[in-house]
Amino acid sequence: MTDTPESPVSTPRRPRNLAQGLVEDFSERIRGGQIRPGEKLPTESALMRQFGVSRTVVREALSRLQAAGLVETHHGVGTYALEPSGGADFRVDPADIATVRDVLVLLELRICLESEAAGLAAQRRTEAQLADMRRALDEFRACLAAGGDTITPDFRFHLLVAQATDNRYFADLMSHLGSAIIPRTRINSARIAHEDREQYLARVNLEHEDIYAAIVRQEAEAARAAMRTHLSNSRERLRRAQVR
């Protein structure tokens, strides 16, 4: 199969957050008209070569662009630009999330935002969205067993829950926050919890499974409670670490 000719890409910068760098580059070009609505974006492999980043970074950036309503992806076909809405982007600089206190503040926001998102997702999710969530959880478990990257499937699961609300603003906020919402990208969560990495991540995985099971059953209150428990557990561990 022959790839579609690649769109010209300007020399990429190396920002502190590589996925955010791709998001900003393509957001500017789509909003500025350099990439027209309906135009196909380069393949994942082409983006990896052009920006000098991993497939994980490319996939996170495309997920965030999709959640922002700037592109749509057709599995097995490619990713295409959409007509931009013209709204201003919401920004949280990951560099500003550097301390336990910063992570706690963000968790307070997430508890409010994502608990309600989980409830709405339980009411509105589609079978395709459930399948995507299942794949993210399976990837998390596989990466945990192999000692690999669990941050990407972790963020993807939370973003998919937001997308399943059928309310673009939940997904927009999650997309712009990006993987910085995952506490262990900022601090050593397992050490703070006084657990080894495998024990800590196994518990995170079980909490994700509880959220997913409630969404599958379409039990909105159970989904809200499971998400609140998941995020509150992280908050309480960090609070205890602060007072030691």
Automatic annotation (TrEMBL):
| Span of domain HTH gntR-type | 16-84
Q: Which residues form a coiled coil?
A: none
- Decide whether keyword DNA-binding is in the record: yes
Which is an annotated Pfam family here? GntR
| SUPFAM superfamilies attached to this UniProt entry | GntR ligand-binding domain-like, Winged helix' DNA-binding domain
Q: Which UniProt keywords apply?
A: DNA-binding, Transcription, Transcription regulation
What PROSITE patterns would the database entry show?
HTH_GNTR
Gene Ontology MF: a single term: DNA binding
Q: What's the name of the protein?
A: GntR family transcriptional regulator
Organism field: Bordetella genomosp. 2
